[in-house]
Design a protein that fits this description.
Elements: H1 15-29, E1 42-47, H2 58-76, E2 80-82, E3 86-87, H3 92-101, H4 105-122, E4 133-134, H5 138-153, E5 157-167, E6 172-174, E7 179-180, E8 183-184, E9 192-201, H6 207-212, H7 222-232, E10 235-244, E11 250-255, E12 266-269, H8 274-279, H9 283-290, E13 301-309, E14 316-322, E15 333-336, H10 342-351, E16 359-360, E17 380-381, H11 392-405, E18 409-414, E19 420-421, E20 423-424, E21 434-437, E22 441-444, H12 472-475, E23 476-478, E24 485-488, E25 492-493, H13 502-507, H14 516-524, H15 533-537, E26 540-546, H16 553-567, E27 576-582, E28 585-587, E29 590-591, H17 602-609, H18 611-620, E30 628-629, H19 632-651, H20 671-692, H21 697-712, H22 719-736, H23 741-750, H24 767-770, E31 774-781, E32 784-792, H25 797-806, H26 808-814, E33 821-825, E34 829-833
Parallel strand pairs: 1-2, 1-26, 3-4, 12-14, 26-27, 28-30, 31-34
Antiparallel strand pairs: 5-6, 5-9, 7-8, 9-19, 10-11, 10-13, 10-18, 12-15, 13-14, 16-17, 20-25, 21-22, 21-24, 23-24, 28-29, 31-32, 33-34
The chain binds one RNA strand of 86 nucleotides through helix 7, strand 11, strand 15, helix 10 and strand 30.
RNA sequence: GCCGGCGUGGUGGAAUGGCAGACGCGCCGGACUCAAAAUCCGGUGGGCGCAAGCCCGUGUGGGUUCAACUCCCACCGCCGGCACCA
């Protein structure tokens, strides 16, 4: 105490103290706050914001550290970096807590946010907290309502009655994307079908563009793009009308295999197909239809007693109701071609229906596959009137043309993607801004009356219907048009609406400052000088989060971005240029979970080792996209490493200062100093390369460890040596800073750094210095290593060969053999083939 | 069933077609200590050998190549996604 005049370097690395010190310092300096600066290239670095469940878990830690390392690195590379954070604050757990413990969802949520924000702050993450968004606050969710009204205006929001996915446990509806293996994405309970009136967003209106623009997602993992493409599930085909024999009605079918039209031997329609209601009068048959198996494995059907006429052949084919035909896709009716569709084949076998081959694998291969299964591939048409002899692909075009000419049907494109059902029968979400009036019908709440505030005085019974239904002051309202008594919509919005545009809110300055109306007019009047913040920051350059949102949040956000563009707020088509899907944090071979009892508490670790250690371990243990196997000993290793760095600086504290060393002086250095200098430049190159190459921080840290090892074993003797040591050490500190910012900052300042590390430019390397003077030449004989020789760099191939052949061990092996070939790999390897 | 990813020491993981196992963990040995912890130094894929060295080795089997963890084909195992979408 008091030995040094300025604050001096302690012998022992004390992470708690220095982390607190620098976090306070950074906050006081406002180091992480950003604004638009058109003189700098921008970089928008974003991590998926968390649901405030109570505490940060290791998955969050990993996610946010990856983002922070990128943000800090990009800042040092001269980018103006936007790096915000917020809270996906609406959702069921808050409501469940209310039911269980009697805490109001708002209170529960805000307390969690407080605690978790404290945790994030202790991690030294470089967020501009001024831009924080909290989706459960009225100043945020009013814009959800605003978007809803915009969607209504554009015909992109509508209400319809339909069968929807209902989670009995969450007591609410789920969108298709939120049902995984027939189970609820959140609580894992089996989802049932229920008929309800629901609000939908017409995401299918953008299906084509969402699919087409998937090609633009070059910075995304191919896997995620493929999942989205498959989810959208585009297929081209034709719809064809079949007359129902003996009536004046028709059935419309959809097929992508119009080349097999001549092979249709019956027709299958869905249970719910309107035709069934209209045609089947017999009570027994109706009962049979109703009792058809729901089991997808079991193919079952019932003959309706009616026949359809194939418009191409005039054949009369029986109409069956089949349990595997979906009402929601296509027209709910299909022509059955057992020879060329496996499902139809199995069905035909079961009910002894005819199989007619119309596609051959090649000319003359008749009957192929008709016994054991369907031949589903393309081939050559047979028994297909004027189309016989055509290959499938061509026949599809010709038959589609023919159908359109004869007005029997038309070409259509179908998608698996369904509209996004956004109504939720729960309290803790954004109220849907709609009023029901007996005279005027469904009335949107006028924009100037937004937000529709979620009432606070609510009773949570946990039974049956949404608590909002019980709040008279909320439900009872006046019609905005006629002023008569009316009732409010009590469903709230899916919380995925909140997260579909939050990246926009950050650009506009966070919760309090978001004003989309003025953002639109700002955008319209935007000139070169007063460019809108949205135009400046969007799109997100790097997005980081879990792969579990591959077809949920990531698809919804793409949809919203396109709508937002069409509204005129932004100009980009896609929200996220690059996407990094980080792997899970695993312990003892399983994902960390309370039920498995293998969770590691970030608070405990940060308290014990400091956040820098946790950060370094998370970045070192595996590349970001892979799963990370947790290892307590690995954490110790990271801690040891930082201690070594600390000790190294401490032991040389009076020698490591801002070095005046100039690169021209290299010739006056002794070999070991040159070697350290070279290693330093090699490390800068390696670390930079590792970060640039898919953010492989693990190898970047490994390279840094190598450099630290080399510095440790360097024995400086003269002043010049110490200068090299100082330079090398200070470069190492700079390279370490994105990973372990606190300890780096402390050591940097203690060794003469006047300005903070984030203001330092990222170091550059000199190829000439990084290059080895001598390299080890590997000599192989028939591909096996038989010797190693040191050779000077830049030796030509002939000289290298000569060196190789002069090696005694090599000569021994070559003795008496005939040379076949000699391969030289520039400066690295010689392979002698005998 | 279809689509995608992965398979490397005891372990987490490295390797533009060119020395397999960087770096870390663990383990073994040594120094320091009365002792331990911490720290530091050295060793560490397997087999044979006193040694020099030799042989084997990246899930399995084949192929391309002077040379394959890397490219191609087939198979096995694990993980993830989709699955009556006509």
């Amino acid at each position: 105490m008091g030995r040094c005049r300025r604050q001096c370097l302690e012998e022992k690395y004390n992470p708690k103290e220095i982390e607190k010190k620098w976090q306070e310092h950074w906050e006081k300096e406002g180091l992480f706050s950003v604004r638009e600066d058109h003189s700098l290239p921008k970089f928008y670095c974003l991590e998926m914001f968390p649901y405030p469940s109570g505490r940060i878990h290791m998955g969050h830690v990993r996610n946010y550290v990856i983002g922070d390392v990128i943000a800090r690195y990009k800042k040092m590379r001269g980018f103006n970096v936007l790096h915000p954070m917020g809270w996906d604050a609406f959702g069921l757990p808050a409501e469940n807590a209310a039911i269980k413990h009697g805490v109001l969802p708002a209170k529960w949520t805000f307390e969690n946010i407080d605690y978790m924000k404290g945790q994030l702050k202790k991690m030294g993450l470089s967020y501009d907290w001024a831009r924080e968004v909290t989706t459960c606050k009225p100043e945020y969710y009013r814009w959800n309502q605003w978007f809803f009204l915009k969607m209504l205006e554009r015909g992109l929001a509508y209400k319809k009655a339909s069968f929807v996915n209902w989670c009995p446990s969450c007591e609410t509806v789920l969108a298709n994307e939120q049902v995984i293996d027939e189970k609820c994405w959140r609580c894992d309970n089996t989802v049932i079908q229920k008929e309800l009136e629901q609000w939908f967003f017409k995401i299918t209106g953008y299906a084509e563009e969402l699919l087409r623009d998937a090609d633009k997602l070059g910075g995304w993992p191919e896997k995620v793009v493929t999942m989205q493409r498959n989810w959208i599930g585009r297929s081209e085909g034709v719809e064809v009308d079949f007359k129902i024999v003996g009536t004046d009605r028709t059935v419309r079918i959809f097929t992508t295999r119009q080349d097999t039209l001549y092979g249709a031997t019956f027709m299958s329609v869905a249970k719910m197909h309107p035709l069934v209601e209209g045609l089947v009068k017999d009570e027994n048959t109706r009962r049979e239809i109703a009792s058809l198996s729901e089991d997808p494995e079991q193919k079952e059907g019932v003959f309706t007693g009616h026949y359809a006429e194939n418009p191409l052949t005039g054949d009369h084919i029986p109409i069956w109701v089949a349990n595997f035909v979906l009402m929601e896709y296509g027209t709910g009716a299909v022509m059955a071609v057992p020879a060329h569709d496996q499902r139809d084949f199995e069905f035909a076998k079961k009910y002894d229906l005819p199989v007619k081959v119309v596609i051959e694998k090649w000319q003359g291969a008749r009957g192929e596959g008709s016994r054991e299964g369907a031949f589903e591939e393309d081939g050559i048409l047979v028994d297909s009137s004027q189309f016989s002899g055509l290959p499938s692909r061509e026949a599809r075009e010709k038959i589609a043309d023919y159908i359109e000419q004869k007005e029997l049907g038309k070409r259509v494109v179908n998608y698996k993607l369904r509209d996004w059902g956004i109504s939720r029968q729960r309290y803790w979400g954004t109220p849907i801004p709609v009023v029901y009036c007996d005279s005027c019908g469904i009335m949107p709440v006028p924009e100037n009356e937004l937000p529709v505030i979620l009432p606070q005085d609510v009773v949570f019974t946990g039974k049956g219907v949404s608590p909002l239904l019980e709040v008279k002051s909320f439900v009872d309202t006046k019609c905005p048009r006629c002023g008569k008594d009316a009732r409010r919509e009590t469903d709230t919005m899916d919380t995925f609406v909140d997260s579909s545009w939050y990246f926009i809110a950050y650009c506009l300055g966070g919760n309090a400052k978001v004003d989309l109306n003025s953002a639109i007019s700002g955008q319209r009047s935007a000139g070169a000088i007063h460019e809108s913040p949205l135009r400046y920051w969007m799109p997100v350059d790097q997005y980081i989060g879990g792969i579990e949102h591959a077809v949920l949040h990531l698809l919804y956000s793409r949809f919203f971005t396109k709508v937002i563009r069409d509204i005129g707020l932004i100009e980009t088509d896609e929200p996220f240029t690059s996407l990094l899907t980080q792997g899970m944090v695993i312990k003892d071979g399983a994902k960390m979970s309370k039920s498995k009892g293998n969770v590691v508490d970030p608070d405990f670790l940060i308290n014990k080792y400091g956040t820098d250690t946790v950060r370094v371990f998370c970045m070192f243990a595996a590349p970001p996209e892979r799963d990370l196997e947790w290892s307590d000993q690995g954490v110790e290793g990271a801690y040891r490493f930082l201690n070594r760095v600390w000790g190294l600086v401490y032991n040389n504290k009076f020698k490591i200062q801002d070095s005046k060393f100039k690169i021209e002086e290299i010739f006056s250095l002794q070999p070991s100093a040159i070697s350290l200098l070279r290693k330093t430049h090699q490390t800068i190159k390696k670390v930079t390369g590792s970060i640039e190459k898919d953010y492989h921080f693990n190898t970047a840290i490994a390279a840094l460890m190598e450099l630290i090892n080399e510095i440790s074993s360097f024995n400086p003797s003269g002043e010049k040596d110490f200068e090299v040591l100082g330079l090398s050490m200070r470069q190492a500190i700079v390279l370490l800073s994105p990973f372990a910012p606190h300890v780096a900052e402390e050591l940097w300042r203690q060794t003469g750094g006047k300005e903070g590390l984030l203001k330092q430019p990222w170091p550059s390397w000199d190829e000439e210095i990084a290059k080895e003077e001598e390299t080890e030449l590997v000599v192989q004989i028939n591909g096996k290593v038989r010797g190693r020789v040191m050779i000077p760099a830049g030796l030509d191939d002939e000289a290298v060969k000569e060196k190789a052949f002069s090696e005694p061990k090599v000569r021994e092996h070559l003795d008496g053999k005939t040379l076949k070939k000699v391969v030289v790999v520039q400066g690295r390897l010689v392979n002698i083939v005998i």
